[in-house]
């Protein structure tokens, strides 16, 4: 499955690293113990400035937990009551984190929307007091300032942020199906203007300090410091505090004024915005854009627009009320639960459950400089790993090296890398045609053509030149690893690493272990994957492993639906309408029709009629005509470079004519088509869990969403079964089974869940 | 291990001939050295030629854009060379080689050493080359000379440095240059016209040279501000140090101690014989200045930074034998030297901290043995940060792999005739000034060992031990 590309909301969710609400469960049990003492917030008076320090002793990051809020309220009351204090600095003692967000366990613990609304209102009240503080408060931000943390900061009178790479500001609530529920939807539009505020809240993107300064989100920037008389991190926080104390003093003495001279652009914008019909136009445009991107499947963005609108048009009282009410409602939605589940899953899949490998991989050799090989190289060189990229031809190698350069250079153009960093990273890459230096390699990842005999040849060649400890990882999407390992002299060192294309964009890495793969080999593969920034699932060996095996029946069904005369565009809109970021027909083109044909045939042989559906011969005829999908310019669609619009490939439709099937009207409604596609996917996923290919449902959900684009709003196949109801799904499948037979026979585990509604994959 | 071996070798009994020389020298220097016992009586090494500084001169260092503003870099270098010739009276053909340091390159005189040497009337048979190593360029020129002599290839070498900030090469934009170069190659009128037509307004924006690191894109002043903050150097400390530099420089100037300065008759203008950047101010006035780089809370200002300077320097370096044979009385021995480099981002200006212990170890001396310290003052904050780093066990252990701190030079021995902050800092020329000043101070104050240390762009640094020549 060399070409799954997630777009739209999925890529939003996947490409941004956000650290909201981590490590929660532990904390819920701690309340009782903490209630007594003030443990999370302390303060110190420096001259006439109170420095309020936040530090959650129970976690790596600060969250707005019950204890934090209680301590903060107490401390602030003392500070306000202290006549010696003229101004306040709010700072975190944690390196790399101001406040990472609200405590999600608080929301999880709520049973009703009203309870959550109550939480939101408490937050609103607390920040209102901060906003109206008679003593100016300076938020000194170093590290992540997200969600509730940002809402806290923008309630303060002045914000100073460090230029550290870890300092990011943002409202990632939308990615959890929520909205900024502690005044964010009310304060941000005032501070940034409607367009920027919508951008920040609807994308949930993280904003770096320098950008935040330009937007007007922070007032002042502080450099990070290098080594001095203390460690750089420690001294940087100290320096930030020094600068913030000075600023607080300046504010109290009115040496620093908060009203900034407005630029003429700002004046014009304010003037235009003063007309209600202009604002209405903005709401409409934003709403339309949201509808187009989410297909109405995600309620949070619309509620954000609604809350902002209520505040701007009907005044703050209504605004805050709407915000808290909508926050409560959103927290109860399945979408939010699904997204939060994905977030937790993602965090879990960023850990190495196999422990620290015995030997760190310092030299990695990649065989094959194709799209995958070069992609793997690109995500490796910038992690300080010496990377050998080997190909058999100068042309192939040159193309691959060019791809790595382009990947890094694009980052330079976007200014996320300096040209100097790019060049330094590239110096980790050695392109070559021979096995020179392989005797020093710690790991090999082969990404040669998907053909067992070629893989065998390569494995034998490589094993002759690599040191004994070197791990051999094979990047394949469907060939069973044990078949590849069959010719190995040391099968314990062989492992599968299934990357998804494009490697630098797709976050998932599926690692496949055989029963001979040693634990250390797995640990090492996971460690390398994590270094490369991947979300990792570790699955058992078998035809198609997990991801390919789930996708194959769905694509087989898609082909049948095409054969039944459904237009590719219609098929796409049905799938995207269900929440898939990429339509089924487009997905086939992305993956490659030839690959799809290859896989369908292989897995068909392995699993028999259950993997039937569409006619493989149709795919083969397409390949014969050269319609291999996007890479060949033609597949289900015609792709023209530079042209965004694509037309249906009429020649492909002609081929389809030859394989035409008559649809059965009883199971061909739009909704039925959607469920025919999804139920086969889901059933196969559950079967993988039943057979032990999957270790747990969490990895199943993560693999499906991050690797295959399963609708994020559904949270993955397992969460979908939980929320949709196994019984209802089985019922649908039975209907399809009557017509198509065993392709729709629900697996035993699914039937178990259908029989007993108390059985859930996710607790 | 190797260095330990060398040290023990050095301290082992010398061969008889050298021992005699040794004894003779320590006798003759004993007059000045009664006060303090040194770790080593001399840094002469068996089998290594003694290399001496015969003379060192410099043009007055002027604020850029003042009297020198219409000159070219090689004019200044020529003035220094002529000054050296005049003062030493050395026959022009006795000089075997000329090395010059320069940082900002005038494209017309990329080998400024050669142009200046020809203009100064040196023999056209004397080869000359130019080196560059940011603010330690002329140190590099001098050590190149030392290398040539030590290797037995030359006996008398002139080293120097020049910097001319009144005029710097400002280039057309890359796009414009590309268009202009293609224009050269265009064959037809049509091709030329279409190229000319492709010129846009944006093409005309010029490219200015910046004192910024290519690797980090950070200007040096910004880095200095961060460095000062990292070591907790306050604005007050920086202003005090800057004021000290100016006050001491003024005293030295008035007391006639800056004898390395040679007058320069600037064509069409008056004769210049004094540095013009020495301006002792008051703490109050200095406190008024706004930070120059990190705004609004930075601590580095125009008053506590070295200013853009025009100037050139030159020294005559010879083997001791040759100098004595030619009847010269050398000023000092040039002994061990080191170059160091570290992280160009966060430790850009910490060269002296790293170089000092290294060169001391090499020569077998301790901080206490040094009578005269001359450190390059790029910024008051940079000097203070270096002093704090040298005084910190934690820093030495964490970042330098040492067991204990380097040690802080006593201020009464430190830059007592002013420094780059007050005298000025023509990038390429400062190194020779430092070495000459050490030699002069050793002579004047009667010390035996002096230490030069400097930082440079790129996160590099240099240090050299200088030994007084027995008077």
TrEMBL record, chain A:
<dbReference type="InterPro" id="IPR050136">
    <property type="entry name" value="FA_oxidation_alpha_subunit"/>
</dbReference>
<keyword id="KW-0520">NAD</keyword>
<keyword id="KW-0456">Lyase</keyword>
<keyword id="KW-0511">Multifunctional enzyme</keyword>
<dbReference type="Pfam" id="PF00725">
    <property type="entry name" value="3HCDH"/>
</dbReference>
<feature type="site" description="Important for long-chain enoyl-CoA hydratase activity">
    <location>
        <position position="173"/>
    </location>
</feature>
<dbReference type="InterPro" id="IPR018376">
    <property type="entry name" value="Enoyl-CoA_hyd/isom_CS"/>
</dbReference>
<feature type="domain" description="3-hydroxyacyl-CoA dehydrogenase C-terminal">
    <location>
        <begin position="544"/>
        <end position="639"/>
    </location>
</feature>
<feature type="site" description="Important for hydroxyacyl-coenzyme A dehydrogenase activity">
    <location>
        <position position="498"/>
    </location>
</feature>
<dbReference type="GO" id="GO:0005743">
    <property type="term" value="C:mitochondrial inner membrane"/>
</dbReference>
<dbReference type="GO" id="GO:0004300">
    <property type="term" value="F:enoyl-CoA hydratase activity"/>
</dbReference>
<comment type="pathway">
    <text>Lipid metabolism; fatty acid beta-oxidation.</text>
</comment>
<feature type="domain" description="3-hydroxyacyl-CoA dehydrogenase NAD binding">
    <location>
        <begin position="364"/>
        <end position="541"/>
    </location>
</feature>
<keyword id="KW-0808">Transferase</keyword>
<dbReference type="GO" id="GO:0006635">
    <property type="term" value="P:fatty acid beta-oxidation"/>
</dbReference>
<dbReference type="GO" id="GO:0070403">
    <property type="term" value="F:NAD+ binding"/>
</dbReference>
<keyword id="KW-0488">Methylation</keyword>
<keyword id="KW-0999">Mitochondrion inner membrane</keyword>
<dbReference type="InterPro" id="IPR012803">
    <property type="entry name" value="Fa_ox_alpha_mit"/>
</dbReference>
<dbReference type="Pfam" id="PF02737">
    <property type="entry name" value="3HCDH_N"/>
</dbReference>
<keyword id="KW-0443">Lipid metabolism</keyword>
<keyword id="KW-0276">Fatty acid metabolism</keyword>
From TrEMBL, chain B:
<feature type="domain" description="Thiolase N-terminal">
    <location>
        <begin position="51"/>
        <end position="321"/>
    </location>
</feature>
<dbReference type="InterPro" id="IPR020617">
    <property type="entry name" value="Thiolase_C"/>
</dbReference>
<keyword id="KW-0276">Fatty acid metabolism</keyword>
<comment type="similarity">
    <text>Belongs to the thiolase-like superfamily. Thiolase family.</text>
</comment>
<dbReference type="InterPro" id="IPR020613">
    <property type="entry name" value="Thiolase_CS"/>
</dbReference>
<comment type="function">
    <text>Mitochondrial trifunctional enzyme catalyzes the last three of the four reactions of the mitochondrial beta-oxidation pathway. The mitochondrial beta-oxidation pathway is the major energy-producing process in tissues and is performed through four consecutive reactions breaking down fatty acids into acetyl-CoA. Among the enzymes involved in this pathway, the trifunctional enzyme exhibits specificity for long-chain fatty acids.</text>
</comment>
<keyword id="KW-0012">Acyltransferase</keyword>
<dbReference type="InterPro" id="IPR020616">
    <property type="entry name" value="Thiolase_N"/>
</dbReference>
<dbReference type="GO" id="GO:0005741">
    <property type="term" value="C:mitochondrial outer membrane"/>
</dbReference>
<dbReference type="InterPro" id="IPR020610">
    <property type="entry name" value="Thiolase_AS"/>
</dbReference>
<comment type="pathway">
    <text>Lipid metabolism; fatty acid beta-oxidation.</text>
</comment>
<keyword id="KW-0496">Mitochondrion</keyword>
<dbReference type="GO" id="GO:0005783">
    <property type="term" value="C:endoplasmic reticulum"/>
</dbReference>
<dbReference type="GO" id="GO:0016507">
    <property type="term" value="C:mitochondrial fatty acid beta-oxidation multienzyme complex"/>
</dbReference>
<dbReference type="InterPro" id="IPR002155">
    <property type="entry name" value="Thiolase"/>
</dbReference>
<comment type="subunit">
    <text>Heterotetramer of 2 alpha/HADHA and 2 beta/HADHB subunits; forms the mitochondrial trifunctional enzyme. Also purified as higher order heterooligomers including a 4 alpha/HADHA and 4 beta/HADHB heterooligomer which physiological significance remains unclear. The mitochondrial trifunctional enzyme interacts with MTLN. Interacts with RSAD2/viperin.</text>
</comment>
<keyword id="KW-0007">Acetylation</keyword>
<dbReference type="Pfam" id="PF00108">
    <property type="entry name" value="Thiolase_N"/>
</dbReference>
<dbReference type="InterPro" id="IPR020615">
    <property type="entry name" value="Thiolase_acyl_enz_int_AS"/>
</dbReference>
<keyword id="KW-0809">Transit peptide</keyword>
<keyword id="KW-0472">Membrane</keyword>
<dbReference type="GO" id="GO:0050633">
    <property type="term" value="F:acetyl-CoA C-myristoyltransferase activity"/>
</dbReference>
